[in-house]
Amino acid sequence: MQALYAQLLVGLINGSFYALLSLGLAVIFGMLNIINFAHGALYMMGAFVAYFLLNLGGINYWWALLLAPIIVGIFGMILERTMLQWLTGLDHLYGLLLTFGIALIVQGVFQNYFGSSGLPYAIPDQLRGGMNLGFMFLPIYRGWVVVFSLAVCLATWFLIEKTQLGAYLRAATENPTLVRAFGINVPRMITLTYGLGVGLAALAGVLSAPINQVRPLMGADLIIVVFAVVVIGGMGSIMGSIITGFALGVIEGLTKYFYPEASNTVVFVLMVLVLLVKPTGLTGRAA
Amino acid sequence: MRRIISTMLLGTAIALAGASAAMAQDKTIKIGVLTDNSGLYADLGGPGSTLAAQMAIEDSGLTAKGWKVDLVSADHQNKPDIGTAIARQWIDVEKVDVFMDVLNSGVALAVNNVVKEKNSILIDTGAATSDLTNAQCSPNTIHWVYDTYMLANSTGQALVKAGGDTWYFLTADYAFGHALERDTTAVVLKSGGKVIGTVKHPLNTADFSSFLLQAQASKAKIVGMANAGGDTTNTIKQAAEFGIVSGGQKLAGLLLFITDVHALGLKVAQGLNFTETFYWDLNDGTRAFSKRFSERMKNKAMPSMVQAGVYSGLLHYFKALEAMGGNPHDGAKVVAKMKEMPTDDALFGKGTIRADGRKLHPAYLFEVKKPEESKGPWDYYKLIGTTAADQAFRPLSESVCPLVKK
Q1: How far is the C-alpha of A229 from the C-alpha of B359, rounded, in Å?
Q2: Scanning every residue of chain A, which has its alpha carbon at the shortest distance from the alpha carbon of B257?
Q3: Contacts of residue A260 in chain B, CB cutoff 8 Å?
Q4: Nearest C-alpha of chain B: how many angstroms from A255?
Q5: Do B298 and A112 touch (CB under 8 A)?
Q6: What's the CA gap between A86 and B66, in Å, rounded?
Q7: Chain-centre distance of CA B201, in angstroms?
Q8: Mean pLDDT throughout A11-23?
Q9: Alpha-carbon gap, residue A111 to A100, rounded angstroms
Q10: DSSP labels, A133-186
Q11: Which site among B170, B198, B241, B256 would you substitute to test the A interface, given the most A Cβ atoms closer than 10 Å to its Cβ?
Q12: With an 8 Å Cβ cutoff, are A215 and B264 in contact?
């Protein structure tokens, strides 16, 4: 029974990465209608930026949490301005192909210079060690990841669903021409939204740097699962993707305990089941 | 008149037949490096293996002696089906004579079959499974660098002797992990230890915390990592986080490469014990080669034992061809010649190749240095034990390979 608690908690930790990443994907899909396959590569860039900040600039983890999302976010906005914006109104497939291509190029470049086994990034001193919860040894850093990412997820949800700015954004997706008629600069807003989604990916990258190796393929391995999360949660649903992210982390964690061989397929089995029963995803509305 | 013409025709035919016989034994060689160029094993084989092959060609001086040597490389993406498809194309269409590297035991066992069927040559320097020279042994295959039996024998035995008599395995769920776990279990049991449990994780897993918690709960003294590459580095890193080592359990890296230690950093990797058959800083010969190698690598990495094996294996292959006076393009014949000749090169020293295809050389037990003991980049290992060549690998008396005459 104790082992079960531990597995639940560990699942929650992984779930927080899924939640952060699928949230960014949901924001981008919801607002821009782009299936952002470059998300994994941008997540990886977040981790690499944190590594460079530390090793070249001597800038610590805490600043990296702030700076890496901004730097990668700006990179994302440049992508949006120079490439993605031309795909507005075209079939989803074009956006998917373009972002997939971008992901391959970015990963290829990083792999060329840094190899595949990755680079070390240490846990910041303040978050070292762990505490004994009785049923398991919880590394403080992992606890921090859960709390921090939950806070970021809720803040993003609040920003989009409950504020004036969020209302503009949602309106702009529904009917860009009308919103523009009110004097709102819709293209700029879309660029910033893409930047926000990308920033969330980079933030997840920084959070994962001390846990995993900073590797060029760290995003490629994760992104497929995250897409499944988004599909299960319902494309474009903000709260749906947060909840599904955490929930699937837990389910995967339990699978690792009861039947480890299936742990990297369980998410996809669930995806198939959900699609069969409710093709719009658990919280999605019919298009 | 008719007779003269027919005689002439006969003569031409004989001459042509003679020419084609001479064609069969020529001075062309085509080498194929089949490896993981982009995935989790790319640093320990990958482009570095192709570079090692290139260096072997240059150092052999064959081109100056009138040989024509070609080199091709491909990425099998750790998938046996892709590996065999490339192997068939290389043999049938591109006329590749010898396969080098072929890391990933799953791919290696599959390619091993194709190579045998088509009478080509596999000098495997990357795969670990000891089945390549046991149940699956082939007259066309030489297993050059290391295998699961040797790793288990050296690291496993040393750890049990040092008091680690209860084991829990974290095993990569494919041919390699299974073989390594099986061979290590045998050694642990034979040395008087006990295996408490095992958990099999999918290849290329990012998060090991669930598995590590299970290992922790087992209270085994040794957590044996029967995985490799990125899987091992992630396990070690996360084990530190979950306090496995500080809680009194010991991690056993059953297969660790220098590129893994480099990726982890000494702070995390210090104190780990594991076995390799090559280290760049062993002697003058290894240092000279490694320095040249590292200068030509994009990330200035030192060679792994897999890459060193590609160089060493090719040099021996070239020697055999030279001794035969040409390339007969007959896999089994060349491999037989290679087994006849003793091996000798700067990287692995003097050695032999056994009837079952097992290349013999000493195995070294290393410990990763503490950060303060390291004198500079890539100065990572302390040598703490050596197993002689004739002791390191599975004895022929235990072999089930049909090539071994009993």
Answers
A1: 48
A2: A117
A3: 173, 199-202, 210-211
A4: 9
A5: yes
A6: 57
A7: 22
A8: 91
A9: 16
A10: -SS-EEEHHHHHHHHHHHHHHHHHHHHHHHSHHHHHHHHHHH-HHHHHHTT--H
A11: B241
A12: no
Backbone angles phi, psi at B35, to 5 degrees: -155, -175
Confidence band, pLDDT 50/70/90 cuts, at residue A284: low
Q: What is the pTM of this model?
A: 0.83
pLDDT tens digit sequence for A28-43: 888 788 889 999 999 9
Pick the closest to residue B183 from B155, B205, B211 (CA basis): B155
Distance between A97 CA and the closest CA of chain B, angstroms: 21
Contacts of A253 in chain B (CB under 8 A): 210
Judged on CB neighbours under 10 Å (0-12, 13-18, 19+), A263 is buried
Comparing CA positions, the residue from A164, A113, B185 lying closest to residue A172 is: A164
H or E stretch covering A249: helix A238-258
Give, for B60, the enclosing helix (H) or strand (E): helix B46-60
In sequence order, the 6+-apart residues with CB closer than 8 A to the CB of A275 are A231
> Cα A114 from chain centroid?
23
Q: Which residue has the tokens 């061979």?
A: B183
Amino acid at A32: L
Nearest to A113 among B202, B211, B299 (CB): B299
Residue B242 one-letter amino acid: F
Q: In chain B, whose CA is at the least distance from the CA of A120?
A: B264
Amino acid letter at B35? T
User: Tokens 């079952």 identify what position?
Assistant: B356
Of A115, A122, A218, the CB nearest to B43: A115
Q: Which of A2, A120, A256 sits opposite B264 (nearest CB)?
A: A120
On whether the CB atoms of residues A213 and A51 are closer than 8 A, the answer is: no
Nearest to A117 among B213, B216, B260 (CB): B260
At A151, list the tokens. 């806070």
The conformational region for residue A113 under phi > 0 = left, psi -120 to 50 = alpha, else beta, is: alpha
Residue B332: is its pLDDT beyond 90? Answer: yes
Q: State the Cα–Cα distance between residues B140 and B330, nearest whole angstrom.
A: 9
* In chain A, residues 142-201 whose CB comes closer than 8 Å to chain B: 142
Which pairing describes strands A137-139 and B98-101: parallel, antiparallel, or unpaired? Answer: unpaired
> How far away is chain B from the Cα of A209, in angstroms, using its nearest Cα?
11
B234: nearest CA in chain A?
A212
To the nearest whole Å, the CA of A213 is away from the closest chain B CA by 7
Structure tokens given for B213: 């918690």
Residue B2 pLDDT: 58
Nearest CA-CA distance, residue B362 and chain A, Å:
27
Average pLDDT over residues B310-318: 97
Q: Can you state the angle between helices A2-32 and A140-162, rounded to 10 degrees?
A: 30
| Chain A contact set for B199 (CB, 8 A) | 260
Q: Judge whether residue A201 has pLDDT over 90.
A: yes
Query: A245 near A22, Cβ under 8 Å?
Result: yes
- Contact indicator for A38, A226 with CB cutoff of 8 Å: no
Give CA–CA dist B19/B13, Å, rounded.
Answer: 10
Q: Tokens in use for A284?
A: 């999605």
- When pLDDT is cut at 50, 70 and 90, the band that residue B40 belongs to is confident
Three-state SS for B73?
strand
Task: Among A6, A212, A217, select the one facing B234 at the smallest CB separation.
Answer: A212
Length of chain B: 406
The residue among B206 and B406 whose pLDDT is bigger is B206
pLDDT in tens, A40-49: 999 999 999 9
Chain A residue numbers with beta carbons less than 8 Å from the beta carbon of B264 are 120, 213
